[in-house]
Specification:
The protein is mainly α. It has one domain: Up-down Bundle (Rhomboid-like fold). It has helices at about 10-25, 40-45, 60-70, 75-95, 100-120, 130-140, 150-170, 175-200; strands at about 30, 35-40. A two-stranded antiparallel sheet has the order 1-2. The longest helix is centred in the middle third of the chain and has 22 residues, at about 75-95.
């Protein structure tokens, strides 16, 4: 009996985020509100508004931050919460659609979320929450037949996205509208990817796996 690296994309993503969060625990700074934040994620793995000093179009880091924000986390609790879902459903998706397709879907989700957040919201954003919701909605298509929309997708979308929309509309602001925005965008892309992939002639190309 041996342990296998059964889902290279998901496990490598987990390893990268673990290293980044570990570095954040070593290199920290204290904010004005008394809270500490990791300098690594703050400088390299957080997307900020285009109006901020961090996001100059002449700075290559601006373009990096638009998708790298999915790798940074606000602490171990934040990361563990996200990867509890990613490690659960990610290997199923990687097996079904292939590693390269999963990387593409994660990249597009992170990039679009980063661009929209930088354009329309005044606060920074980091974390893999958008990818989590993309995977949750995508996994509901895993046993769907071509040309159909599974009832499980409808129910999951109603439960997860419905609650996020309600929370985002909370006038008190206690539910963190920016976070809900990332969840909603991720869920929308999960539904789009699920329907598109299930209607392609070949759901998983013969050489699409990533081998390690």
């Amino acid at each position: 009996m041996r342990i296998t690296y059964n889902a290279p994309v998901v496990l490598t993503l987990t390893l990268i985020c673990t290293i980044i969060t570990s570095l954040d625990t070593v290199f920290t700074t204290t904010m004005m509100n008394g809270k500490t934040t990791g300098l690594v994620s703050q400088n390299f793995f957080t997307v900020y508004p285009f109006s901020s000093a961090y996001m100059s179009f002449s700075d290559p880091l601006t373009y990096w931050r638009l998708f790298s924000h999915a790798l940074g986390h606000a602490g171990w609790g934040h990361m563990v919460g996200n990867f509890s879902f990613i490690l659960l459903v990610g290997p199923v998706l990687e097996e079904k659609y292939g590693g390269k397709s999963l990387i593409m879907m994660m990249f597009v989700t992170a990039l679009i979320t980063g661009v929209l957040n930088a354009t329309f919201f005044p606060n920074g954003l980091l974390g893999a929450s958008g990818i989590v919701f993309m995977m949750i909605l995508l996994v509901s298509f895993t046993n769907a037949k071509k040309g159909t929309i599974p009832l499980t997708f409808v129910l999951i979308a109603s439960l997860y996205l419905g609650s996020e929309i309600i929370n985002a509309m909370d006038p008190s602001g206690k539910n963190g509208g920016i976070s809900q925005f990332a969840h909603i965008i991720g869920g929308i892309f999960g539904g789009i990817f699920g329907y598109m992939m299930n209607n392609m002639p070949n759901k998983k190309m013969p050489n699409s796996d990533i081998q390690i």
